[in-house]
Design brief:
The chain has about 80 residues and is of the alpha+beta class. It contains one helix and seven strands. Strand 2 and strand 3 form a beta hairpin. The longest helix is centred in the C-terminal third of the chain and has 12 residues.
Length: about 80
């Protein structure tokens, strides 16, 4: 496993790869649940996928979009209408 220097928004996070592939992580809040979103941090993007279907489509977000999403979640948004 190695890291690639790079920043993600203003948090200074680095990309993490293993054997040239993104290192996928899931929230510790998932516990042993199999239905979680997994996230991988690259130098300029954040990838997200469904843990139940890791070979399915991977979503790619810019660092700015991802940090904006996390900020909205922290504020309690979006809410069900």
């Amino acid at each position: 496993m190695g890291t690639i220097s790079g920043s993600l928004g203003d948090r200074g996070e680095t990309a993490v790869v293993h054997e040239g592939r993104p290192l996928w992580r899931r929230s510790s809040a998932c516990g042993n649940e199999s239905e979680c979103v997994e996230v991988a941090v690259l130098a300029r993007h954040v990838l997200a996928r469904d843990s139940k279907r890791p070979a399915a489509t991977v979503l790619r977000f810019t660092a700015l979009a991802w940090t904006g999403f996390l900020s909205a979640v922290a504020r309690g948004e979006p809410r069900d209408a």
